Amino acid sequence: MAEKPWDGRFEEKTDAAVEAFTSSIDIDRRLYTYDIDGSIAHCRMLAKSSIITEAESLALIDGLEKIRAEIATGAFTFSDRLEDIHMHIEDRLAAHVGGVSRKLHTGRSRNDQVALDVRLYLRDASRKIIQGLVNLRKTLVGMAHQYVDVTMPGYTHLQRAQPVLFSHHLMAYYEMFTRDTRRFEDGLKRINVMPLGAAALAGTTYPIDRAYTAQLLDFPEISENSMDAVSDRDFILEFLADASICMVHFSRFSEELVLWSSSEFKFIELSDGFSTGSSIMPQKKNPDVPELVRGKTGRVFGSLISLLTLMKSLPLAYNRDMQEDKAPLFDAVDTLIACVDIYTRMLPKIKINGDQMADALLTGYINATDMADYLVCRGMTFREAHGCVGRAVSYGLSHHKELHEMTIEELRSFSDLINEDIFPALTTRQMIDRRQSFGGTATVNVRAAVGRAEQRVADENRSINTF
Asked: 453 lies in a domain?
């Protein structure tokens, strides 16, 4: 099929520069298996609806499967002349089945065809990401279980604030990635809508059976407006927004791993297998994986902004601008999948320096709030207690003493409500284990949270294919 599908209208051949400029085959060739799946379902529907014969449908399907094998094995030749994956497959089909190949496009357009292909692709990609996030969360839960008793400073404004369990800190990221999982799961509802049958924009005059096509392709819903069906990219925007939020979480985690692995913190040590060195400084061990994940966040943000900008002023229905949706989508999918995978591999190999974390709790007046709480329990209002402890901290700063290093006489100079029983209240373990409000860092709370999470990810692994 050497001619263009639209050659009947044109008197001049398409300029070679235009063919190169308008071609998207280098980008959309990865959709080939989805394009073939959609075409096979379309063929079966056409035969069921008596629009083509059963023999013609079988011939077309056989040819399409041969093309699938050719592309999979690298035997297929691509050319800018044929623009996109749809035209490549249709053109090649003629070599396998002859003139009947011209019936493949009956009752559909490239507009609803590409919408279908992208939805099929993104459905698979979303499921892969969801499974990856479940595995990542399982890894985090396993680490939280392993290090459930390790203590560390919790920070606000990147300054030591209050003691927490390291496992509690890890479980904060578990919660973030759980929300990400839920967002991608919910996004599948909008992705899983079948657009085929909308044709170019107005539907088709053929007696097609869209419900049957949807059944063959496992779509629970069918688009209700043909113009919206071919011009809708909200499901991609939603995915990219979800991916961007997920990358925010990766970037925050990456920043902490970079800080924690520095000589200034020494809280963790990254595995040699997930670090690199310097070309000039022999002593260096660089946290390149977290740094790269942090950097790749910008790429995913860029994909979202790119598509928002692309769609912001397009009139209904399809416009060729929308060909540019696939490059940012594919890049965001590839980037996110790679980040999920590398973190799932890297995290279990991190060495946790629990003693260094515990030592960091001994300075910085990290028990100041607990001293205030102690005074409140003895009748002082919290605001009075806050001021009292603030004066004690000021005294400690000028005398180079932490609160727990002061004598009982020094402490009582700030309030006669203070007795010897204040010292146990200022220890790390008591400070942590008294915080038993739901969601707090007390060991009993964290153990229960880890247990619930272990059950949750186990249940999700069992039901991962039931979306």
From this structure: yes
Report long-range pairs for 402-408 (Cβ below 8 Å, ≥24 apart).
Answer: 402/362, 402/363, 402/365, 402/367, 403/365, 403/367, 403/368, 403/371, 404/367
For 355-366, what is each residue's pLDDT tens digit? 999 999 999 999
Residue 217 lies in a domain: no
Q: Which helix (H) or strand (E) holds 211?
A: helix 210-216
Q: What are the tens digits of pLDDT across the range 58-110? A: 999 999 999 999 999 999 999 988 889 999 999 999 999 999 999 999 999 99
The residues near 215 (Cβ < 8 Å, ≥ 6 apart) are none
- CA torsion 203-204-210-214 (nearest 10°) is -70
Output the CA torsion sign for 8, 13, 16, 21.
negative
Q: Is the pLDDT of residue 17 over 90?
A: no
Which is nearest to 202 in space by CA: 320, 319, 90, 107?
107
Counting beta carbons within 10 angstroms of the beta carbon of residue 48, is it exposed (0 to 12), middle (13 to 18) or buried (19 or more)?
Answer: middle
> How many Å is the Cα radius of gyration of the chain?
30
Q: Which domain holds residue 74?
A: 7-106
Phi, psi of 438 (to 5 degrees): -55, 130
Tens of pLDDT, residues 266-284: 999 999 999 998 889 888 8
Confidence bin at 11 (pLDDT 50/70/90): low
79, 262, 278, 394: which one is catalytic?
278
Q: Is residue 36 part of a domain?
A: yes
Catalytic residue among 50, 157, 400, 463: 157
pLDDT of residue 1: 45
For residues 450 and 171, the answer to whether their CB atoms sit within 8 Å is yes
H runs (alpha helix) in 272-407 = 288-311, 326-346, 354-359, 368-376, 382-399
Phi, then psi, of 27 in degrees rounded to 5: -95, -50
pLDDT number for residue 4: 59
Residues 42 and 69 in one domain: yes
CA distance 145 to 143: 5
pLDDT at 262 > cutoff 70: yes
Domain co-membership, 67 together with 145 = no
Residue 72, Cβ neighbours under 10 Å: how many?
11
Catalytic site residue 278? yes
Q: Averaged over 153-171, what is the pLDDT? A: 97
